[in-house]
Amino acid sequence: MTTILPDAAIDALLAQDVPYGDLTTDGLGIAGRPARMSFAARAGMVLAGTEEAARLVERAGGRVLRAEPSGTAVAAGAVFLEANGAAGSLHRAWKVAQTLVEYASGIATRARRIVEAAPGVTVACTRKNFPGAKDISVKAVQAGGAVMHRLGLSETLLVFPEHRAFLDGPPDGWIADLRRKAPEKKIVVEVGSVEEAVLFARAGADVIQLEKLPPDAARAVIEATRDLAPPPVVAPAGGVTEANAAAYAAAGCRLLVTSAPFFGQPADVRVVLGPA
User: Fold this and answer.
1) How many domains does the chain have?
2) Residues 147 and 258 in one domain
3) What pLDDT, in 10s, does the model give residues 25-46?
4) Which helix (H) or strand (E) holds 87?
5) Does 222 lie in the same domain as 95?
6) Does residue 126 form part of some domain?
7) How far apart (Å, rounded) are the C-alpha atoms in residues 10 and 106?
8) Measured between alpha carbons, how far is 176 from 174 in angstroms, rounded to an integer?
9) Does residue 54 sit in the same domain as residue 80?
10) What's the rounded Cα separation, in Å, for the pair 166 and 243?
11) Which domain holds residue 179?
């Protein structure tokens, strides 16, 4: 993968952490000493954000010797990034680069676990990433082998109950109206029961998003709508994790929508920084 953040964003990250120089490194008089730095996985993980970490080192004045690409699965103890340069440069990049890789790799690792739990099923992550971190979050999701469910409100048609609270009349009418206004878009409707799912599927929805419904409910919706031509895509959402992904796949679901990769512990990266 390539770097997803432009240099201006990389520089802004450095400026947040080192706005007026490194008081400790400069005060000790070691900023000009030759140094070497390595990043290693403390446990097995799927890497993400390594390109951005490498660019952080470069923008701080260091030289990257090696960086494994995002999407690479590494074992505990594996070194995946090495750099050298002046001690001041490496200290400047150290924590920002480490933290970025840890958070991004945590997302990628959790996404990969869900993908591997349900082979042949598309795992799509929602837009519930931390505000301001969309670029890295999307890259991490993709590094884990998942895709994005929707990148934002401007991209897709997803009708929530909160939208329907303002609508009058049967769903056939407003679904047909949406299709006229955006004929190239799929119409996704979120539902909270099997009955709602069947109702909106028969009204013409392309995708039925099941909010926190269990696998047996997903199976019931698939069976009740398989006579439609074409039948809707039935996509469980809310509460989908690596623990239940296989059960949804066994129920016949081919698309799983989840926010789980965004929430959890960061990956654990060991950094060694010392004299070259």
Assistant:
1) 2
2) yes
3) 999 999 999 999 999 999 999 9
4) helix 87-117
5) no
6) yes
7) 20
8) 5
9) yes
10) 36
11) 119-262
| Alpha-carbon torsion angle 205, 206, 212, 217, nearest 10 | 90
Compute the distance between CA of residue 133 and CA of residue 58 in angstroms, rounded to an integer.
Answer: 21
Determine the Cα–Cα distance for residues 191 and 212; give it in Å rounded to an integer: 9
Token pair of 214 as six digits: 């269990």
Give the CATH number, domain containing residue 22. 3.90.1170.20
82: left (phi > 0), else alpha (psi -120 to 50), else beta?
beta
Do residue 30 and residue 57 come from a single domain? yes
DSSP string, 136-173: HHHHHHHHTT-EES-S-TTT-EEE-HHHHTT--S-HHH
Beta bridge partners of 19: 21
**Per the domain annotation, does 32 fall within a domain?**
yes
- Helix 194-202 and helix 215-225: axis angle, to 10°? 30
Instruction: CATH number of the domain at 143, please.
Output: 3.20.20.70
Rounded to whole angstroms, what are the CA distances from 139 to 15, 30, 95, 101, 147? 23, 36, 20, 11, 9
Query: For 124-169, how does the pLDDT look when each residue is reduced to its tens digit (9 = 90+)?
Result: 999 999 999 999 999 999 999 999 999 999 999 999 999 999 999 9
pTM, 2 dp: 0.95
- Asked if residue 249 is part of any domain, the answer here is yes
